Amino acid sequence: MQAPTAAGLLALPDDHPGVSDVAYRQRRAAIAAVGEAHVPGAPIPTVAYAPEEDAVWRTVSSELGVLHETLAVEAYRSGVAALALPTDVVPQLGPVSERLTELTGWSITPVPGLVPTRTFYGALAERRFCSTQYIRHHSVPFYTPEPDVVHELIGHANALAEPRFAGLYELAGQASLRCETDAALEAFSRVFWFSLEFGVAWEDGELRAYGAGLLSSYGEVQAFRSAEVRPLDVAAMATLDYDITQYQPVLFAADSFAHAHEVLATFFAGWDDDAHHRLLAGG
Fold first, then answer.
1. What are the backbone dihedrals phi and psi of residue 65, each rounded to the nearest 5 degrees, phi first?
2. Residue range 186-213, pLDDT digits in tens
3. Alpha-carbon distance 153 to 158, whole Å?
4. In the predicted model, what is the mean pLDDT of the chain?
5. What's the pTM value of the predicted model, to 2 decimals?
6. Would you say domain 22-280 falls under CATH 1.10.800.10?
7. SS3 state of residue 229
């Protein structure tokens, strides 16, 4: 997890769009401090978003909404309709969390930035989703090199508003807790990546997305049909490397979202170190 420096700036990688924007880095640090100050069980602190931040959200959410009509699976679109995120301003995590609790029993925990892998997945087992509150740099509203509030809410929270997705995320979190070795956790993480982040499924004769990484990316959600599409195969997913800095060249397609749900639920429910050993042994 990154933390503000003594100068009140957040360290960003050299290729980040906001790395040379001191005002943006100060703003990021201030928003991170809001999440860091949250006390579990207390109301989620409100962030006073600036007009240009609301403008980024308004632009991205409206454009993605149009794309989702034809490129997202029905189950995800059902979650979108149920959660009904505002489109004109950046949503506050508090009301979104309350609505999720009403719909599927999930809640949101604000965090200042990236959290350790086991912390993120472990929270899922408790039906808690760890979410950042900052938004991407205004100069490139359709791109972010890291998860931001657009990815967290449009990608994940919309899915968590739908019962089938909500159940899969919980099963995934429980599976992570059974991983005693880092190797088993890494294999599990790859399946999570190629499914709940970058999963696709056939629906009404077309390839559609159900993964949050695709559904929150304006560019990649329009390009995913050009990837090498392989049949859904959790063993292959668990052993395939991926690069987070580029569009995914290989995707795994289920015959339908119902098929994806069945396969992934079975995988997550049975995953542990013994299952990892069996996978490596080809069993």
1. -60, -40
2. 999 999 999 999 999 999 999 999 999 9
3. 6
4. 92
5. 0.92
6. yes
7. strand
CA distances from 21 to 14, 109, 115, 226 (A): 12, 28, 24, 34
Q: Poorest-confidence range of 38-47, 102-111, 204-213, 263-272?
A: 38-47
User: Which segments of 109-240 does DSSP mark as H helices, in order?
Assistant: 117-124, 149-150, 158-160, 163-177, 182-192, 212-215, 220-223, 234-239
For the chain, what's the residue count?
283
| Contact assessment for residue 198 and residue 237, using Cβ atoms and an 8 Å cutoff | no
At 224, the amino acid letter reads F
d(CA 37, CA 29): 12
d(CA 27, CA 49) in angstroms, rounded, equals 10
Distances in Å between the Cα of 46 and the Cα atoms of 67, 100, 129 are 29, 17, 17
Q: d(Cα 16, Cα 91) in Å, to the nearest integer?
A: 24
CA distance readout (Å), 104 to 73, 85, 118, 128, 270: 19, 15, 23, 11, 23
Q: Tokens 């995120």, residue?
A: 85
Active site residues per annotation:
151, 156, 197, 216
User: Which residue in this structure is represented by tokens 């490129």?
Assistant: 71
For residue 247, give both structure tokens: 């569009």
For 93, the enclosing helix (H) or strand (E) is: helix 93-104
Closest CA to 30 of 120, 109, 135: 135
Q: Tell me how far apart the alpha carbons of residues 55 and 135 are, in angstroms, rounded to a whole number.
A: 11
pLDDT in tens, 225-234: 999 999 999 9
Task: Please name which of 236, 245, 149 lies closest in space to residue 195, comparing C-alpha atoms.
Answer: 236
Is the model's pLDDT at 82 over the cut of 90?
yes
Tokens of 168: 């899969």
CA 254 to chain centre: 19
Q: Are 215 and 68 in contact (CB under 8 A)?
A: yes
